[in-house]
């Protein structure tokens, strides 16, 4: 029962944070949404920041699960990576309150969240290098991709973290599917100059050119 109430609080908070904005929602609003007393809510989460941290932990666990999933060997490596990125973008949309508008303020206001994202960036350098080595080994990309992996890692990190803000401005009425499709098209474009003919063939099967706003 305790676990169920805790999860109900988190689900209600997630809905309210995404719909109303983080600043507009207080613990009383969340308690009202769950139909429990404020005292009952604070038993599980003493402060609003504790709720944000718990949701952030849910988000990061879901992302880690996707990125740690084993990719298929051979020609399927690019397809599996595409599916990983698509899944990550969908998870980000579910927890969109973490990224909309005041992302940097949210991350830096809670030490545990800031530390996590700093560690994630370090881990991503290893992830990208291993992934790009697979691309080269499968003759999907040229050796120059390995030379530029560090720079591309920064590019991909920025694209992955801030595509929400871009779409809030330029695509406010788009559906979640349209948002993910657009984000995928933009995200994969930096790979194009590095791909071999074989890689381009796989790329063109999945990746569409970004449409103008």
UniProtKB/TrEMBL annotation:
Database matches in InterPro entries: Homeodomain-like_sf, HTH-type_TetR-like_transc_reg, HTH_TetR, TetR
PROSITE patterns xref list: HTH_TETR_2
Gene3D superfamilies: Tetracycline Repressor, domain 2
DNA-binding region: 26-45
Short name of one Pfam family: TetR_N
Domain HTH tetR-type: 3-63
Keywords: DNA-binding
Listed name of the protein: HTH tetR-type domain-containing protein
Organism encoding this protein: Niastella koreensis
């Amino acid at each position: 029962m305790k676990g169920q109430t805790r999860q109900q609080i988190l689900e209600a908070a997630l809905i309210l944070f995404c719909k109303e904005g983080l600043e507009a929602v207080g613990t009383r609003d969340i308690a009202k949404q769950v139909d429990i007393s404020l005292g009952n809510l604070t038993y599980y989460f003493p402060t609003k920041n504790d709720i944000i941290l718990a949701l952030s932990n849910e988000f990061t666990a879901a992302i880690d699960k996707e990125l740690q999933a084993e990719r298929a060997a051979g020609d399927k490596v690019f397809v599996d990576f595409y599916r990983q990125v698509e899944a990550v973008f969908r998870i980000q949309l579910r927890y969109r309150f973490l990224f909309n508008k005041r992302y940097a303020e949210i991350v830096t206001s809670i030490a545990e969240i800031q530390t996590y994202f700093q560690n994630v960036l370090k881990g991503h350098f290893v992830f990208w290098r291993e992934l790009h080595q697979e691309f080269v080994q499968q003759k999907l990309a040229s050796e120059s991709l390995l030379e530029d992996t560090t720079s591309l890692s920064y590019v991909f990190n920025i694209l992955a973290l801030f595509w929400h803000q871009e779409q809030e401005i330029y695509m406010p009425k788009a559906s979640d599917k349209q948002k993910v499709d657009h984000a995928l098209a933009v995200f994969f474009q930096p790979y194009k100059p590095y791909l071999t003919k074989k890689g381009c063939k796989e790329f063109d099967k999945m990746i569409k050119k970004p449409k103008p706003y």
